[in-house]
Write a structure and sequence with these properties.
Helix content: 25-40%
Bound molecules: coenzyme A
Strand content: 35-45%
Low-confidence stretches: none
CATH superfamily of the domain at 4-112: Gcn5-related N-acetyltransferase (GNAT)
Order of helices and strands: EHHEEEHEHEE
Family: Belongs to the acetyltransferase family. RimI subfamily.
Distance between the termini: 35 Å
Structural class: alpha+beta
GO cellular component, one term: ribosome
CATH class of the domain at 4-112: Alpha Beta
Largest sheet: 7 strands, mixed
Domain N-acetyltransferase: 7-156
Shape: globular
Protein name: Ribosomal protein S18-alanine N-acetyltransferase
Mean pLDDT: 96
Oligomer: single chain
CATH architecture of the domain at 4-112: 3-Layer(aba) Sandwich
Number of strands: 7
Organism: Gryllotalpicola daejeonensis
């Protein structure tokens, strides 16, 4: 049986780069970040990335999520969150955001920001449940699809 207990979360390392990039292409297709961006995200001192695996197959990545917070800043960003289809619907998205917020609080962050496609109601619903509210729109932010981004903010 698959349930939330079937999965494990841990801190990402640069050794996860290849699998993260491959998963990113499957999940985000046209919006996928290039390997160079992922490398700098995973190597940065100012980010905090978590990855999801199956508990009984820890070498295979099924998801990831990341925080960016600069030293001394009271604002932070959810950089991204993505789960393979097989790992959706088990509360992992909620757990990942909860843990990013905990780390952000530990770093002194008060306000969190993120961008989300206007045509992604599932992610918006997750974010709203954490108190995120729309504060703006970035026209045509997602290219080449030319889809707008909602900019959302939450006090944590
Ligand atoms: C968005 C995503 C991370 C959610 O992760 P998840 O583990 O499936 O979500 P959870 O099981 O933790 O559910 C959390 C909340 O998300 C929303 N949600 C999840 N699945 C949903 C669905 N099928 N329909 C509507 N809302 C849904 C609900 O608000 C849910 O809260 P609830 O269970 O109290 O109703 C996941 O769907 C995903 O990776 N999607 C593709 C990538 C993506 O869109 N990333 C966001 C980019 S901004």
């Amino acid at each position: 049986m698959t349930d939330a207990e079937s999965f494990a979360l841990r801190r990402a390392t640069i050794d996860d780069l290849d699998q993260v990039v491959a998963l990113e292409r499957v999940i985000f297709e046209n919006d996928a970040w290039p390997e160079s961006l992922w490398r700098s995200e995973l190597e940065s001192e100012h980010t905090f990335y978590l990855v999801v695996t199956r508990a009984d197959a820890p070498a295979e990545l099924l998801g990831y999520a990341g925080l960016l917070s600069l030293p001394g800043a009271t604002d932070g960003d959810v950089q991204t969150i993505g789960l393979a289809e097989a790992a959706r619907g088990y509360g992992l998205g909620r757990e990942l955001i909860r843990l990013l917020h905990l780390e952000a609080q530990r770093r002194g962050v008060r306000d969190m920001f993120l961008d989300v496609r206007v045509d992604n109601p599932v992610a918006q619903s997750l974010y709203r449940s954490f108190g995120y509210e729309q504060i703006g729109v970035r026209k045509g932010y997602y290219q080449p699809d030319n889809v707008d981004a909602l900019v959302m903010k939450a006090a944590i």
